[in-house]
Amino acid sequence: MRWITGRAGRGGDAPRAAPARGGGRTRGGAGGGRARGGAANASTPRRKRPAPRRAPVSWGQIWGRLRLAGVGLLMIGLVAGAAWTWRSGLIGQQWAALGAAMDQLAMRGGLVVRSVTVEGRDRTSPTRLLNALGTGRGEPILRFDPHAARARVEALPWVAGARVERRLPDAIHVVLTEREPLALWQRRPDGDFAVIDQTGLPLTVDCRPFADLPVIVGAGAPGQVPDLMALLARQPALAARVRAATWVGGRRWTLRLDAIDDGIDIHLPEHDPADAWGRLAVMERQGRLLARHIDRVDLRLPDRLVVRPRPSVGLGGQTPEAPARSGVPALSVSTAGQET
Fold it and tell me: Are residues 114 and 205 in the same domain?
């Protein structure tokens, strides 16, 4: 038998009321629900997402890749074949055979060289000119290259410029502009000479036919020849008597008149040589200065004239003569200690 009293609700042995549903209605229920949920999430491991499956390769893709690889192999083969063909000389042989066939057709059609005409040739050797053209009678005219022939012709010593024309069907025409010889340059005292043209260029030609040209002496003298000739041309009567000119110290000229061996030396100044050259011409016209027994006229001082008498003759009443070399008389070169 159980004893029931009215204070049963206050004691610690009274039964607890069941928790209400929907723990969100009470604070205790709400807090307890969140704690239990958090503990459950912490203890439960996360599931990994499965990796995406690769789509299977189709036969179309396989065929495209094979086709690309085949194209690459074909290109490699073509390049290697072309390189081998070039190195083996097959292309050159085929090209030569084609050129020979074209030459045969041209010759049958009358396209061959039958005449070579030249204008302006005076000193250029005909044999050297034809060799430079690189063709001759009966050669296929279509094989003739006017531009290459022009370059070879202009390399000849006497040729300053050239025009080469191919006139079909059978003619080649050449127009030359040749160099003009102005003087002989004595390069060494032993008589080594070179012809100087109108631009001061030394030419590698035979000097013997030009022994009557004025002789130029001195290092760097060829480059001064055009200016010297322009200076001398101002007084033609005196210019015709100039036989040699020495470029002294790279700054002025000493001229020799009338004769290489025993002529009269004319010392021109460094500055304004044209004025001194004109004064000499006036004195020659008025007083016949150069007809006197003198061997030097010094015009380097603008306000005075220095004249040196000719030395006495040697034994026998004659002046010793210097020997000539290689058909051209040599001129003694003045050094810095002898003349300035």
Answer: no
Does residue 219 share a domain with residue 138?
no
In which domain, by residue range, is 142 found? 108-178
Q: Kindly tell me the burial class for residue 182, based on how many C-beta atoms sit within 10 Å of its own C-beta (0-12, 13-18, 19 or more).
A: buried
Rg (CA), the chain: 54
Would you say residue 309 lies in a domain? yes
Q: Which two tokens stand for residue 27?
A: 């604070």
Residue pair 214/255 in contact (Cβ under 8 Å)? The answer is no
DSSP-derived secondary structure letter, 65: H
- In this structure, the answer to whether residues 200 and 272 fall within a common structural domain is yes
Q: Per-residue pLDDT tens, the chain, 340 aa: give them.
A: 344 444 444 444 444 544 444 444 444 444 444 444 444 454 555 666 666 666 666 777 777 777 788 888 888 888 877 777 667 666 666 666 666 666 666 666 668 899 999 999 999 999 999 999 999 888 888 889 999 999 999 999 999 999 999 998 889 999 999 999 999 999 888 778 999 999 999 999 999 999 999 999 998 999 999 999 999 999 999 999 999 999 999 999 999 999 988 899 999 999 999 999 999 999 999 999 999 999 999 999 988 889 999 886 554 444 444 434 344 444 443 433 345 5
pTM beyond 0.70, yes or no: no
CATH of the domain at 153: 3.10.20.310
